[in-house]
Specification:
single chain; 382 residues; mainly alpha; Serine Threonine Protein Phosphatase 5, Tetratricopeptide repeat
């Protein structure tokens, strides 16, 4: 029996038709997926513009499922997770990106930066530090150093903070001279609490020579010398403050007056305070310090009158009224109590960066963590 070749004549057209149908099916499926994916993407974008983060997350998850190889969608999804506080899922998304072998080096570092931000927002400072250190030689190096600086300040690791600040300054990110002085003052305070007074004194004396414009360095040095019984040395530091950083003299005006009286140098202190008053806007602290140096109450009260002539002040008026007697003790007491209560908010210090108010002066705002954001003036004087 011979072989029948006629079936080949039918099989070739049939194979062609089946192949064509299969290609058409794949093409329709590919087109459907391409249509579905942009719809999910744009739907998520629309939710973002309407500040509907939950709906946007759902839309981007759908888009990622349809096209798992799209890195941009993963970045968008991870950032959304972080913004709504779902840090665990954000970390998983960015760690998945880091494990992919098809990403460019630029995208890998971008994912590393995003991962570090996830850890920062979640408060995992040790893991954030490790992630940020991997960005030191990349285009994200400056942002990484700034984040590391914030971590070291928060953990009060002043030596590491000083190193990060020095590197930022070397990268042309501005001057960190006064910030570095704050770090040294913090280290001196730590030494002081540990009882290492000699080391703290040496650190501060070196600091004022290196950074004479640091008001905090002079004030810390004055306080330490005074605590060691060297009132004369403390006064010398305060006089240097008046010369090098005069805008901060109101912070130490009371100490200057008090220590000068103890050291019988009231005349020198009064000359410094009056000279400052003549060249600057009225200061309640300076006026009070001058009043402390006066030999009698009438001359002290006259200083408050002079203050009021230059600038209306409820606090100064209250101090002046404290020396007045109207023959009605009970009524006088109630009036003074009411005035003192009204004055309390006016005696506070206010952060210029965030508006946080406090009774005491802070070199670093406890609200926004900004350095030198408190003007050395009371709220009433701003």
């Amino acid at each position: 029996m011979g072989f029948d070749y006629s079936w080949l004549l039918w099989s070739l057209p049939l194979t062609f038709v089946l192949g064509w149908l299969a290609s058409r099916y794949d093409l329709r499926q590919w087109r459907a997926e391409r249509k579905q994916n942009p719809k999910a993407y744009f739907r998520g974008l629309n939710h973002l513009l309407n500040e509907q983060q939950d709906q946007a997350v759902d839309a981007f998850i759908e888009a990622v499922q349809n096209d798992p190889d799209t890195s941009e969608l993963h970045f968008a999804l991870g950032n959304l997770f972080r913004r709504r506080g779902d840090y665990e899922r954000a970390v998983r998304v960015h760690e998945h990106l880091l494990q992919r072998g098809d990403l460019t080096q630029k995208d890998l570092m971008r994912a590393q930066h995003a991962l570090a931000q996830d850890f920062l927002k979640a408060g995992l400072l040790d893991r954030a530090e490790a992630a940020l250190r991997k960005l030191e030689d990349t285009e994200h190096a400056t942002e990484a150093l700034l984040a590391l600086l914030a971590i070291y300040e928060r953990s009060r690791d002043w030596e590491q903070a000083a190193d990060a600040a020095s590197r930022l300054e070397a990268r042309g990110c501005g001057s960190f001279e006064l910030r570095l002085a704050h770090y040294r003052c913090e280290q001196a305070e730590q030494l002081r609490k540990q009882g290492s007074l000699v080391e703290a004194l040496a650190l501060l004396e070196t600091l004022v020579q290196r950074t004479p414009k640091s008001a905090r360095a002079w004030i810390s040095l004055a306080d330490l010398r005074q605590s060691l019984g060297d009132t004369s040395g403390g006064l010398q530091a305060l006089h240097q403050l008046a010369a090098q950083a005069p805008q901060h003299l109101p912070l130490v005006a009371h100490s200057l007056a008090q220590w000068s009286k103890l050291n019988r140098q009231g005349g020198d202190a009064e000359r410094v305070l009056r000279g400052w008053r003549d060249q600057h806007a009225p200061s309640l602290d300076v006026t009070q310090a001058l009043a402390l140096l006066q030999p009698d109450g009438e001359q002290a009260r006259q200083l408050y009158i002079e203050h009021l002539q230059r600038e209306p002040s409820l606090v100064a008026a209250t101090f002046w009224l404290a020396g007045e007697h109207f023959g009605q003790p009970e009524e006088e007491k109630r009036v003074r109590q009411a005035l003192e209560r009204a004055c309390e908010p006016l005696k506070r210090y206010r952060c210029a960066a965030c508006g946080f108010e406090a009774r005491q002066y802070f070199w670093q705002c406890p609200g926004c963590q900004s350095w030198d954001s408190y003007p050395p003036l009371r709220v009433e004087e701003l």
